Amino acid sequence: MTDPIPARSFGSAKKSRWFAVGALVVAGGAFALIASGRIGNNLVYYWGPTQMEKAGQKAIGATIRLGGQVVPGSIHQDPSGRSLTFEVTDRHATVEVHSSGIPPQMFRAGIGVVVEGTMTKSGVFESNRLMVSHGSQYRPPKAGQTVDVQDQMKTTTGLAGEKIR
Amino acid sequence: MPEILSPASPSKSRATQIGLVLAGLGVVLLAIGVYLGLFVSPPDAHMGNVVRILYVHVPTAVSTLGTFTVAFVAALGFLWRPSWKFDGVLEASLEVGVLLALMTCAQGSIWARPTWGVWWDWDPRLTTTAVMLFSFGGVLALRYFVDDPVRRAMWSAVATIVAYADVPVVHFSVRWWSSLHQKQLTGTSLPGPLKTPLMLTFPGMLLLVSGFVVLRAKLAMRRRATELAPPPAAEPNPVAPTPEAVEGGR
Questions:
Q1: Is the separation of the CB atoms in A96 and A76 below 8 Å?
Q2: Which of the following CATH numbers is that of domain B14-183+193-225: 2.40.50, 3.30.1490, 1.20.120, 3.30.70?
Q3: Which of B169, B171, B156 has its CA nearest to residue B72?
C-alpha cells in the first residue's frame, strides 16, 4: 500500500511483544482448559437414555434434554394431532417420551431427536420441545421417488417404501 | 498534504485493483454456484429443497473462521512488528468477520426452523458461535470507542488474540460434544450432483471475502492517513472580527 501515513511512534516494540505473549498465554490457556475437558466435561447438552436411567430419581422434576434415536415402530400419534408418544434409544437403554405439539417435518422412525422436558414418576419423559437432529449425509431422491415436503409433514413415517436404518 | 487527501486520484491503487478483481471473480463463481444450487441440483431425499441453503451456509461459516484467523495473524503481526498495514488488515478482517458471523447465524436459523423444528437452541456449536460473534463484536466496538489510533491498534490487537481462543472451539465443538448441529461435511457427505454447486460457491465465497478484506484494509489505511495527518494551519476566519477591528471600535 502506497499511501503515506504520517510517522507516529508506536512506543517500544519490546513492550508490544510482551503484550502479544501475554495475550497468547491467556488465549492458549483458555483453549487448553476447554480442549482438555476440564470445562468441557461439565458442558453437557443432552443426556442419553443410559444416563437418564442412571440418574433415576434425580431426573424427576428437573428440566433436562434427552437425546437419542427414535425406535422404529414406537411412534403413536394422538388422534387430535396435538401430541405423540415414541421411544428414544441409544442402543443400551430406551426411554418412553410423551411430546406435546406438532413434530418437525423431518421427524420419523430412526432419526435422531433431542427433546426438552422432564422425567415423570411414571417413567415417561414429558417433553414440550421436540428437535430433530440429522447427520451430515445428504442424498438425492432415488429414481421415481418424489419429495413432497407437505406430505412428509402429515406423517411420521418418512418417505414411502424407504428402509429405516 | 498527503497524497491521500487529494481529490479523486486518477489511477486506482494496486491494492484496490486486486481487491476488485478478487471480489469480482467471487461474485461470478457465487452466481453460477447459486444458480446450479437453486435450479439444477436435486433436492435432498428427506429434507427437500431446504438443503440448498447448505451451498451458502457452509462457505459463509468456513469464511467466518478463516477471516477471524486472518485477524488473529494480523494482531500477532502488529504486536510483533507494529505497522499501520497490520492494523488496517486487523480492522478489515474484524469487520468482515463479524458480518460473516452474523450471516452464518441467520442462515443457520433459517435452515434450522424447518429441519430441526426450532430457530435456535443452546447446543455447543451454536453457543460457541454466538460467543465468537459477541467477542469479536466487542473488539470492533472497542476500536470505535478508542480515539487514539496507536492505543486503538494495540488494545484491539491484544483483544483479538484473546477472543481468538474461541475460534478453534467452534470448529471442534461438533466433535468434542454431542450436539444438535450436524458434524462437518466429509468427502462422502454429498454425492455427485449435490456437490457441484458447493465446488463453485465455496471458492466463490472465499474470493469475495478476500476481496472485501483487501478493499476494507485499504479504506482503513486511508482513514489512518487522515486521522494522523497534522491539522491544517489555522486560516483567518472572515466572519469573526479581527483584533484590530475590535480595538478600533472602542
A1: no
A2: 1.20.120
A3: B156
Of A3, A108, A136, the CB nearest to B4: A3
A69 with A116, same domain: the answer is yes
Tens digits of per-residue pLDDT, A52-103? 888 888 888 889 999 999 999 999 988 877 889 999 999 999 999 999 978 8
Q: Which amino acid is at A96?
A: E
Cell numbers placing B142:
472497542
Instruction: Check whether A154 has a pLDDT greater than 80.
Output: no
- How many domains does chain A divide into? 2
Residue A39 and residue A92 in one domain: no
Within 163-222 of B, beta carbons closer than 8 Å to A belong to 163-165, 168-169, 172, 176-180, 182-186, 188-191, 193-194, 217-218, 221-222
Answer yes or no: do A107 and A37 share one domain: no
Burial of A41-80, coded b for 16+ CB within 10 Å and e otherwise, reads: eeeebbbbbbbbbeeeeebeeeebbbbbbbbbeebeeeee
A49 in contact with chain B, both atoms CB, cutoff 8 A: no
Interface ipTM: 0.83
Mutate to test the interface with A, among B178, B196, B218, B222 (most CBs of A within 10 A): B178
By residue range, what is the domain housing residue A21?
12-43
Hey, of B11, B13, B46, which one would you mutate to test binding to chain A, going by the most A CBs within 10 A of its CB?
Answer: B46
Residue B186 to residue A136, Cβ atoms within 8 A: yes
Separation between Cα atoms, residue B240 and residue B43, nearest integer Å? 73
